[in-house]
Amino acid sequence: MTIPFLSFDVMHGPIKKALREAFNEVLDSNSFIMGKQVELFESSYAAFNKVSECVGVSNGLDAIQLSLEVLGVGKGDEVIVPSNTYIATLLAVSFVGAKPVLVEPDINTYNIDVTKIESAISDLTRAIIPVHLYGRACEMDAIMRISEKHNLFVIEDNAQAHGAVTGEGQTGSFGHMNATSFYPGKNLGALGDAGAVTTNHEQYAAKARVLRNYGSQKKYYNEVIGHNMRLDELQAALLNVKLKELPRWTFQRKEIAGWYNEFLRPVEELVLPVSTSLDAHVYHLYVIRTSLRDDLQAWLHNAGIGTLIHYPVPPHLQKAYKNLGFQKGDFPIAEEIANTCLSLPLWPGMVKKDVEQVAKSIQAFFISVKKTV
Ligand SMILES: Cc1ncc(COP(=O)(O)O)c(C=O)c1O
Q1: Whose CA is closest to 283, among 80, 113, 110, 63?
Q2: What is the pTM of this model?
Q3: Given Cys at both, which of 111, 158, 164, 223 links 172, Cβ 3.0 to 4.6 Å?
Q4: What are the tens digits of pLDDT across the range 181-213?
Q5: Which residues line ligand 1 (CB under 6 A)?
């Protein structure tokens, strides 16, 4: 690919030495599980996320499941999730024995439509999981008002929006428990699997610490039936290096999104991300929409430009969820997004010339389409 979807080389280049030093430090320490790197990362990420508590865990899926377990959500309960999220949001609900109840997103923001949440609430509803999709913060003030009115828990899925700001606070700080992923391609990514829960409730964090570690506080003494959902010391050490870069990387992501907006605004056939306050979107992904998505993706591929689709099949149409009994047409907005969305190349350090080349190739595609009509 001339322009890949994501270039780790460019992102990691300037910090490779520091990453290697972090690796060596862990190697030389002979401490590989729950050591000082995990402790340092938890306090640093809590400070970054403006919460009192951060508990490092194994990955984002486990972070959501652990959050649900800490809040006592389980068998027979219903949990409201957006109909266009990544499958992990639903899987976590299923793993605790609860039922995911799908609510359509807003077609402009791609985040859960807050005006549709209340009609999905039943006597069995225990929690709402808003997902800050593509890096755009959900309307958390409105969601928290709904949760208070109906006495529901909120668990933010903040896998894609590290550092986004909405209303009075930062994503990952509003909910009773909040889950995030440090999958390598995320805005803050480990060099392997990693995740965390964040909260301002000390008692929930304490429960999460026990549950992530075999239900144990004291080695070989088990208080509850727990998991092994620990964050590796090595990943924590690498994350400690990368967290320092996150503000700079977020600034660059926003700048790149601005360039795409500038170059693509003249292309009438495209739906671009709707504008928002500068802090509310951290552009994990720059997602455009067109009914000619598949042809455009093939065109860009032939031009050496990497793109991805987030996500091609909405959860209700996944084979894994056929037990929910849904059919095509049941969630038309989620389906419309799945059929038309395309994520363009974006990584911190991507230069304006590359953004312009992607935009020019997109323009050339639509010119060629007009010629053939
Ligand atoms: C919205 C969302 N939720 C949850 C996850 C799950 O995270 P992980 O891959 O670390 O399990 C991801 C990313 O993969 C995600 O994008």
Answers
A1: 110
A2: 0.98
A3: 158
A4: 999 999 999 999 999 999 999 999 999 999 999
A5: 59-61, 85-86, 88-89, 131, 157, 159-160, 181, 183, 193, 195
